[in-house]
Write a structure and sequence with these properties.
Blueprint (H helix, E strand, L loop, with lengths): L2 H9 L6 H13 L4 H14 L3 H12 L15 E5 L7 H11 L4 E5 L9 H5 L11 H11 L1 E5 L6 H11 L7 H14 L4 E8 L8 H17 L3 E8 L7 E2 L1 H12 L5 H17 L6 H13 L2 H12 L18 E6 L4 E6 L1 H11 L15 E4 L6 E2 L4 E7 L5 H10 E4 L9 E5 L2
The structure holds uracil and calcium ion.
């Protein structure tokens, strides 16, 4: 097989065989296929696309390019949740303990990554003593015992995807549905999930800005997962404004605690109950979605979800007393109020710009080397659709520096107030199963 012939084949719109896809991914991973040929191929894929079968083959070829996590020693159906990323998305912190409380095993491998706030691990590390550097055996033991544990990324997972994603980033070929879908799904599958619930965000703060694009991506991932024998479903949810009120690491831990007892923001609570119901159902812990939802609501109300969070923190060295006394979480030196300059109804809180403001405060990493300030961030006091008076508080800015002028300017630019009544955005657009 010659790579040049394969580039030509895709350029002319033809379908690859399984062997051809394996040849390409193996060759690219081991360096026998150079970047310039792979670049030409990704551009051909960008224009000509891939069939469902090719996408599934590409996904599995990338899974086999590196280590695969074996979770078979964990009892039960391991359901993983993946979000395509947003601003102030506290769902993982809530969902882990929540579904674990009703018996769904949560074996989470998590990374740090870049973004407006830290990743799940960073957020959890705002609990003093909590750590994710645990041995594999300990991890498995904890999941069997408590139904939940989080481990830091180790091993060499999907090296083909790492190399390919970096190449796509500099060749204008990131925005290709088959390539994005196989990239995301390969990582979930290599991490050992039996079933996958996807939260595909849509709107200003999302990777996919329009509903059509989000739906295409969701469909593509659901088809890949089911094609390769992992039951997969997707929820398309709003990310035009941030989810919940808190954007920041320790601030989101506090928000997760509130949500675990049913006292969190409405949108975050509803999305967690929806995603959670699908996880419980796929894990076969309930025979219908409505039964699953009842179980989760009960775990919020009777305190078992919060209790699970405490056990989880403690079993990984964390100080669980922060749950009853969140003032023990890292605290910012200054809390500055941003006030509305006019009266009306909040018509827009542009999520990605709010994310940028959180980053200016130090809540997230711009580069791999940046350090994160766990204490800082933003707490929204209003959401889209809310009425506001002039001089009323819009946002609380948690900062470790006194001068937050730039942050305030950014926030004022991204929050719009209209004289007319505004409807809050739809939270959940679609639920996609096959
Ligand atoms: N996120 C991924 O993991 N891969 C992509 O290709 C795009 C977004
Ligand atoms: Ca939030």
């Amino acid at each position: 097989m010659r790579m040049v012939d394969l580039i030509e084949k895709k350029r002319d719109g033809n379908e690859f065989t399984t062997d051809e896809i394996n040849f390409i991914i193996q060759g690219y991973t081991n360096g026998s296929i150079p970047d310039y040929q792979m670049s030409a191929l990704t551009m051909a894929i960008f224009f000509k696309g891939m069939t469902d079968r090719e996408r599934a083959d590409l996904t599995m070829a990338m899974v086999r390019s590196g280590d695969q996590i074996d979770l078979s020693a964990i009892e039960g159906i391991k359901v993983d949740k993946h979000s395509t990323g947003g601003v102030g998305d506290t769902t993982t912190l809530v969902l882990g303990p929540l579904v674990a409380a009703v018996g769904v095993p949560v074996a989470k491998m998590s990374g740090r990554g870049l973004g407006h706030t830290g990743g799940t691990i960073d957020k959890l590390e705002s609990v003093s003593g909590f750590h994710v550097e645990i041995e594999n055996e300990k991890f498995i033991e904890l999941v069997n015992q408590n139904k939940i544990a989080v481990i830091g990324q180790s091993g060499n997972l999907t090296p083909a995807d790492k190399k390919l994603y970096a190449l796509r980033d500099v060749t204008a070929t990131v925005d290709s549905i088959p390539l994005i879908a196989s990239s995301i799904m390969s990582k979930k599958i290599a991490a050992g999930a039996d079933a996958i619930v996807l939260d595909v965000k849509t709107g200003a703060g999302a990777f996919m800005k329009t509903l059509d694009d989000s739906r295409d991506l969701a469909n593509a991932m659901v088809r890949i997962g089911n094609h390769v024998g992992r039951r997969t479903m997707a929820v398309i949810s709003d990310m035009s404004q941030p989810l919940g009120y808190a954007i920041g690491n320790a601030l989101e831990v506090k928000e997760a605690i509130d949500t675990l007892i049913g006292k969190g923001p409405d949108d975050l609570t509803e999305l967690c109950l929806t995603l959670g119901s699908h996880m419980v159902y796929l894990a076969k812990k309930a025979s219908s979605l409505s039964e699953a939802r009842e179980l989760l609501e009960k775990a919020m109300q009777d305190g078992s979800a919060l209790e699970k969070f405490k056990v989880f923190l403690e079993s990984q060295g964390g100080d669980a007393s922060i749950v009853d006394d969140p003032s023990k979480l890292p605290q910012a030196k200054y809390i500055v109020e941003l006030k509305a300059t006019e009266a009306g109804f909040v018509s827009e809180i542009v999520a990605d710009q709010i994310g940028t403001a959180a980053m200016l405060l130090g809540a997230g990493r711009a580069t791999k080397e940046s350090t994160i300030d766990l204490a800082v961030g933003l707490v929204l006091r209003k959401k889209v659709g809310d009425q506001v008076q002039a001089g009323e508080s819009l946002v609380l800015i948690y900062s470790n520096f006194e001068n937050v002028t730039e942050v305030k300017e950014k926030l004022l630019e991204s929050i719009k107030i209209s004289p007319e009544k505004v409807k809050p955005p739809t939270l959940i657009y679609e639920e996609i199963t096959i």
